[in-house]
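User: Last request for today: this protein with iron/sulfur cluster, please.
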Amino acid sequence: MKLLMHTCCAPCSTYVIKKLRQEGYEDITSYWFNPNIQPYDEYKHRLETLKEYTTMVNVSLVIDDYYNLKEFLKDVSNFDGIRCEYCYRRRLEKAVIYAKENGYDCFTTTLLVSPYQKHDLLKKVCEELSKEYEIEFIYYDFREGYYEGQQMAKDAGLYRQKYCGCIFSRDEAEMQRDEYKKQEEERHKKNREEQIANKEKKYRKE
Ligand code: SF4
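Assistant: Here's the final one, the structure of the complex with iron/sulfur cluster:
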């Protein structure tokens, strides 16, 4: 089976490649088409990391280096529905067309490994494309290996990004980190106040 593996980034591909090989898929091609990654220096960084990793694990890589920030932002803003659905379809349809035109038997995507993706929606988009273009979709719930894959990426010294890809997800991730930091600070403050109050209570008793 000649399999085209749409690849969102190198860290997500670590476990997916391992699992696919365990399942008997030997002829795997990694396919890069991710015009959703912003800003451009981040896009380049992730692509360079993937080049490095596919060489390390001996997987061939096909790169569609199309990038158009304005177009992506315009289309995603005009999309009448969940932003990620547009994004999944945009990337995966290109991968599926490439697979069909180049004699692949099946396709999958490394996006399926991330617990941060909208897994069911992603699966649905893949199934629809599989039907539409008459090409088999290989599905595993790769999420079971997410942490193992992250450790593999760490061990291999790969760059690991802190957000999904688009500028919206970068802001959301940053805001979540700020919120977490705020909650932690409040928790510490409360603990300190409780400790002081307990000490005062004890002192008064003595
Ligand atoms: S959050 Fe991720 S999947 Fe969703 S639109 Fe942004 S880049 Fe695409």
